[in-house]
Amino acid sequence: MKALFIYTVWWCLWIVLQFVLLTQIGFDTNKALTDAIVTQFIFALAGYTINTSMRSYQPGLRNSLYVLSWSLALAVLCVFVQRWILFEFFGQSHADFVSSSMIIRGTFGWLMIIIVAILTWFWVYVSDRKESEKRKDDATKLARDAELSNLRQQLQPHFLFNSLNSISALAGSRPDEARKMIQQLSDFLRGTIKKDENSLLTLDEELAHLQLYLDIEKVRFGHRLNTVIEKSADSIPLKLPSLLLQPIVENAIKFGLYDTVGEITITVSARKEGNDLLVLVKNPYDPATSVPKRGTGFGLSSVQRRLYLLYFRNDLLGTSQEENIFTTTIKIPQTA
Amino acid sequence: MINVLLIDDEPLARSIVREYLLAYPDFNILGECNDGFEGVKAITQHKPDLIFLDIQMPKINGFEMLELVDEPPAVIFTTAFDEYAMQAFERHAVDYLLKPFNKDRFNKAISKWKYNRAALQSNTIELLESTSQPDERFRIVVKKGINIVIVPIHTVYYIEAYDDYVKIHTKDGFYLKKKTMAHYEKALDSSQFVRVHRSYLLNIQELTRIEPVEKDTHIALLKSGDKVPLSQSGYGKLKEVLGI
Q1: What angle do CA B61, B62, B66 make, to 5 degrees?
Q2: Chain A nearest C-alpha distance from B216 (Å)
């Protein structure tokens, strides 16, 4: 609509210009105005025709030749139509004037039509670009969102059903403890569900959630599982993406408990290093029987992927092995 | 008296079976085991009539534990979530309890077992013989004398047919396991282990050289110095996997 208005104003300007020109070389107002209106109106129609027919074109060399010859033909046609109309209005004398100025009229018209064509081309090109860029952005964003929520929903069914089994066992003999564990499991699940994946939590909040998880695992495995959580004072206000540590600790517990027999200790320690929050998770393992490259198992590769999606960095997660201790290190850059 | 053993790494999971068994005065609980090592020992020692067995346990899983026992007793499997195991149970009509299970379901499992002991036991043996489970891609659990050895799969040089057994060759010598070549050919990663001969399954990481012996016959030379014969089709398969 706005474009149509600008287009109309543009041609009105040319009408005024031509009118002024014709009155100055001696035509009376009536003739000059009619000639100007008829001429420019016909050219405006031709411009509109070329604009609509070109909207679906893709810019290219072959099309440009096509448009060039098409615009030339249109210009010639316009001039003849104009001559015929003006003859009908003012008779032979004015038609002769039109004929004598035909070259100028035709060239002017042709240039106008080509300008419209070039502008149309430019407009089609820009809006195409814009749209494809928007589409690409949308797709990336969508994929990222879906991926993040998928990665977050790695709640292990094994953990859930075994916890429920423990509750079932406690319900018979120690109902108070059963009730307590139901509470812990509920709080844990609620924390897992309600958290927005893009939100940042303070270290304290994340560790509190982790503690719930560890308490449940301790009920399941009894005295076999010990946990230590350490944090330096300056790390407490630091922030990290929600539920980032849980899969790492889950992984540590899984390998600690299933790769060794006897009691194990899982250590989670957090401190500030430079501008980053550094968290270390340690678990015992058996170097003789553990499968090499297990560090890239699903538990950790999803964390790696999530860190990449959030920070566009691949160097934030690391693992190291020393004696019988497996350490997972995670760095969380502190932005904002 | 029916002698029972409870094998599960979670104490509470054992306690619920113990509680449900209170209703059966003719059942005697011989003991509880925290893992497969204790399980093998207790089964060998006490020869129970029935065991309740968890799948996912430290170091060796329930299936691997059963393979280490010469005469596996009747088993009622208990598991929380193990898609692979559940499929195997269904396929071989072996009863299993999905945690958490209630008393009714437990009673049903007991009466089913009482009613048809022999069939269930043979079904279990069949299950062990015919299925390959995911952990086998990473390790083979064997017995050497009274010791249980976990052999990580990447440390295996090659596997050799040996009557009803296979010999699993490693840097510490070989171990015997009552399995077939076909079983390991199916269970192991085919891009790592190649059946180069009717009687040999070769870890291609161990290969240093292929040498012709006579016309159309070759042998593989391993890093360890061992030599493994290649059959004509085995030689072809090996070349295909190595991309030569």
Answers
A1: 120
A2: 37
